[in-house]
Amino acid sequence: MTVESGPDALPATASPEVEFISLTHTTASTELEPIPSRGIDLPFIRRYVRALEDGGFDLTLLPYGSGSADSFVLASAVGQLSDQLKPIVAVRPNTVFPTVAAQQLATLDQLTEGRAVVHLISGGNDAEQARQGDYLPKTERYARTSEFIDVLRRSWSEPEAFSHAGAHYRFDGFGPGFPPYAAPIPISIGGQSDAAFEIGGTKADIFSFWGEPLADIRTQIERVNAIAAAAGRTDRPRIWVTFRPITDRTDDLAWAKARDYVERISRTFETGAYHKREKSAPQNVGSQRALEFAGRQEVYDRALWTRTAAATNGLGASTALVGSPETVAAAILDYIDLGASLVSIRGYDTLNDVIDYGRYILPLVRQELAHRKATGQRGALQANHPGALASAGHP
């Protein structure tokens, strides 16, 4: 791909490719329509995973929480229910010893013939960490994650037994460990604290962000890359961004749907029917930033909407992209232009949204990237679908 000057020129930062991520849900319960359940609906999981694969998604995140399904077991099931999907296992280092995690991940990688990915969560909420016996302060949790990464990689690569004596883990004569299928298993890190950036820039294969305004994401990507360069890395972490798109046939219809959705989501969180809305300020920096953006304004750039983040008190990835499929695809391309090569989109109407994204959004993004590869220039999608850029706020 060449980069030329002119209105159709590609930024030097633009990623030439993208892989799409979603999140695997275990029941039909949603933030819009909570459904009481025991937590696993196997027919639904089968249908959901098939919809992801049929829709052209590349990866799916298996999240972790103290009261959720186990991410390792679920990832193994997803790996066998699909042929191409790469399962991303969310792991908290406080819940499993690193040599054991290395075995589990390598086993998953073997069973899926090289599709395993791991996303490490240091932990951003003291109360949630304490539910499983973790009382380390946040700064120490990140130091533990750094050591966890070192042990994972040695466990997969050391040809002989080795010992380790660190601040958080100690063992003697481990290995050689059970190997991955072929290539090393990619390690993802997320977070917005200084410690998260330092570990992610220095050691991670992937650095994950929630959806933020373009100018802020640009600054954050530059920060990660600068840390990687200072560490002497010849590569850079891949950039993963996450959104909750709300789409309809036109921009106006999508905004009407979004306004309806946020009222329903607010009621759900206020009643605790899906997840209790925390009244206190969130501890993790990512949620604090989400609420700061929401407090400043509702709409940013082409399609980024923050009222959903405000409605959940910044819980998890909750910023939306609102618009027609064309507008949302154009907004995704704005982030690809900044260097994102992993884009997570999951909706509020889970299964139906996965189907719609696969039909209407993923093909548009991939068509544009194919055009860029062939011509070295942007196509017309971004210019023809300005979304909120056409006015001071949403249409």
Automatic annotation (TrEMBL):
<dbReference type="InterPro" id="IPR036661">
    <property type="entry name" value="Luciferase-like_sf"/>
</dbReference>
<dbReference type="InterPro" id="IPR011251">
    <property type="entry name" value="Luciferase-like_dom"/>
</dbReference>
<keyword id="KW-0503">Monooxygenase</keyword>
<feature type="domain" description="Luciferase-like">
    <location>
        <begin position="30"/>
        <end position="341"/>
    </location>
</feature>
<feature type="region of interest" description="Disordered">
    <location>
        <begin position="376"/>
        <end position="395"/>
    </location>
</feature>
<dbReference type="GO" id="GO:0008726">
    <property type="term" value="F:alkanesulfonate monooxygenase activity"/>
</dbReference>
<keyword id="KW-0560">Oxidoreductase</keyword>
<dbReference type="Pfam" id="PF00296">
    <property type="entry name" value="Bac_luciferase"/>
</dbReference>
<protein>
    <submittedName>
        <fullName>Methanesulfonate monooxygenase</fullName>
        <ecNumber>1.14.14.5</ecNumber>
    </submittedName>
</protein>
<keyword id="KW-0285">Flavoprotein</keyword>
<dbReference type="InterPro" id="IPR050172">
    <property type="entry name" value="SsuD_RutA_monooxygenase"/>
</dbReference>
<keyword id="KW-0288">FMN</keyword>
